[in-house]
Write a structure and sequence with these properties.
The protein has helices at 41-47, 97-101, 104-107, 295-298, and strands at residues 29-32, 37-39, 58-61, 84-88, 93-96, 116-118, 124-127, 133-137, 143-148, 153-159, 165-170, 183-188, 194-198, 200-201, 204-205, 210-215, 221-228, 231-237, 243-247, 261-263, 269-273, 278-282, 288-293, 302-307, 313-317, 322-325. With 327 residues, it is mainly beta. It folds into two domains: 3-107, no CATH class; 116-325, Neuraminidase (6 Propeller). The strands form seven sheets. It has a five-stranded antiparallel beta sheet with strand order 2-1-3-4-5. The chain is globular, with a radius of gyration of 20 Å. 36% of the residues are buried. Keywords: Metal-binding, Zinc, Zinc-finger. Residues 71-105 form the B box-type domain.
Length: 327
């Protein structure tokens, strides 16, 4: 039997099997597109750390729990007749089997995540996975404007005060940084004109891979800085771009592994910690307050964060589950 196709021979009701260790899986099952193998969570983690395979693209099988995914359509938005079967955390999107066999492999060849923010006027500003640009869409999803950011690629984005945007930029999708590298956060107008950029502090580089950004109620600029494929830190500047503090997590079994940062109405800084299965809460000065959620609540690694208009925190997890948290 083809080692990458064991799952195709399962009978209805059978548990999926890891192609690497033959373990039967209760929930999560990931697939490496490069190796064409399905893996359990343990093997997936190892696969992402081994030098020979750490750059491979991996998608995660979705185990549908309708009560936790009421806001997600079960039909693929690209292939309308196909049910969603995977969650691709490379592209931060739900996809079907046709996506895997067809264009999605090329679509997520690099590690960048699509990010988007909704403005106070209801428009959506989204980054682009494939080319250096931002897209403005109506709330119905109709594209109304494209802003080129060439030669810099956009990653994180948020709406800032006074109708401006904060955008994370980098010149190359790589954790390797040299003297010529560009890794920065810029404040721009809705039309794409740069107002200010923040790249260095006292002659030292602020970021390795700025991934997510959020503005606090005191106008602090909070940035998730990815320092490797499995670790990162939080970099917080004041409204002038002066470094206030960095936060590198708590003493936990795995390195601090953030992707998203959000700020609540009270000025608390909320940041996910993927591999440690926690959501951290800090005060405005970077002091750790507590974990809003951990493995006892989430049951899976938290990947994305968002507040709704009522101040409820939505947490999206690696296996596709979505949790609504009040604290």
């Amino acid at each position: 039997m083809d080692e990458g196709r064991k799952q195709d021979h399962l009978c209805p009701g059978d548990k999926p099997v890891c192609d690497l260790c033959d373990t039967k899986i209760d929930h999560e099952l990931s697939k490496c597109l490069a190796c064409n193998v399905y893996m359990c969570r343990t093997c997936t983690t190892a696969h992402q750390k081994v030098l020979a395979t750490k750059q491979h693209n991996i998608v995660a099988r979705v185990e549908w729990e309708p009560s936790k995914l009421q806001n997600v359509s079960q039909m693929c938005k690209t292939h309308k007749d196909e049910e969603i079967a995977f969650y691709c955390y490379t592209c931060n999107d739900f996809i079907c089997s046709e996506c895997i066999l067809g264009d999605h492999k090329g679509f997520c060849e690099s590690e960048e995540k699509r990010n988007k923010c909704k403005t106070k006027h209801g428009d959506i500003i989204a980054t682009d996975n494939n080319k250096p640009s931002l897209h403005k869409l109506t709330k119905e999803g109709v594209k109304t404007q494209t802003i080129s950011t060439s030669p810099l690629q956009c990653t994180g984005i948020c709406e800032a005060s006074a109708g401006k945007l904060l955008v994370c930029f980098l010149d190359k999708l790589s954790y390797v940084v040299d003297n010529s590298s560009r890794r920065l956060v810029s404040k721009i107008t809705m039309g794409g004109n740069i107002i200010e950029s923040y790249e260095h502090h006292n002659g030292s580089r602020l970021f390795t891979w700025p991934q997510g950004v959020s503005e606090n109620i005191n106008k602090d600029i909070c940035v998730v800085d990815r320092t490797s494929k499995t670790s990162g830190r939080l970099v917080v500047m004041d409204k002038t771009g002066k470094l206030k503090y960095t936060y590198e997590g708590q003493k936990l079994p795995q390195p601090f592994d953030p992707f998203y940062v959000k700020c609540d109405k009270s000025g608390h800084v909320i940041v996910n910690d993927f591999y440690n299965t926690k959501v951290h809460m800090l005060d405005m000065d970077g002091r750790f307050i507590r974990y809003i959620a951990d493995e006892n609540i989430l049951k899976n690694d938290p990947f994305s964060l968002e507040f709704d208009k009522n101040g409820v925190l939505w947490v999206g997890c690696y296996n596709g589950n979505v949790y609504k948290l009040k604290y």
